Amino acid sequence: MSKGLSKTICALHPGRLAAARCPQCADFYCPECITEHEGKMICASCLSNEADVARKERTKRHFPFWAVLQLAVALILCWLAFYYVSGFLSDLPDEFHDGTIWE
Ligand SMILES: [Zn+2]
Ligand SMILES: [Zn+2]
Predict the structure, then answer these.
(1) How far is CA 76 from CA 36, 51, 56, 64, 70, in A?
(2) CA separation (Å) from 7 to 26, 27, 56, 78, 100?
(3) Nearest to residue 30, comparing CAs of 3, 10, 47, 12?
(4) N or C: lower Cβ tally within 10 Å for the chain?
(5) CB atoms within 10 A of CB 28
(6) How far, in Å, is the centroid of ligand 2 from the Cα of 56?
(7) CA distance 66 to 46
């Protein structure tokens, strides 16, 4: 490794010297191709991959939570509706069912 980084060329630009190595894919890149992300140097393609993974994990985490919450709210509303309707019906006087209350 006596030649060092200065003799390494960018993986995307064969004519340019590499400035840093991406820890993710272990390729060398020029300053234009590599960027700093959360305190570490990372190449553009690995950065977009990470963003994709982060986006997928976000939707993965949140989707079941909202689905379960909506299901629970729907069940509670249904239960409350049936509870009050059945309570209302059982409170009705017997005459209502006979039809005599309207006379
Ligand atoms: Zn990379
Ligand atoms: Zn480059």
Answers:
(1) 49, 38, 30, 18, 10
(2) 16, 14, 38, 71, 102
(3) 10
(4) N
(5) 19
(6) 28
(7) 30
**Could you give the CA distance from residue 81 to residue 78 in angstroms, rounded to a whole number?**
5
**pTM greater than the 0.70 cutoff:** no
Tens-place pLDDT, residues 62-72: 667 888 999 99
Measured in angstroms, how far is the CA atom of residue 61 from the centroid of ligand 2? 35
- Would you call 87 exposed, middle or buried from its count of C-beta atoms within 10 A (0-12, 13-18, 19+)? exposed
Percentage of the chain with pLDDT > 70?
A: 87
Distance 55 CA to ligand 2 centre (A): 26
The ligand with the least distance to the CA atom of 33 is 2
Whole-number Å distance, alpha carbon 24 to ligand 1 midpoint, is 5
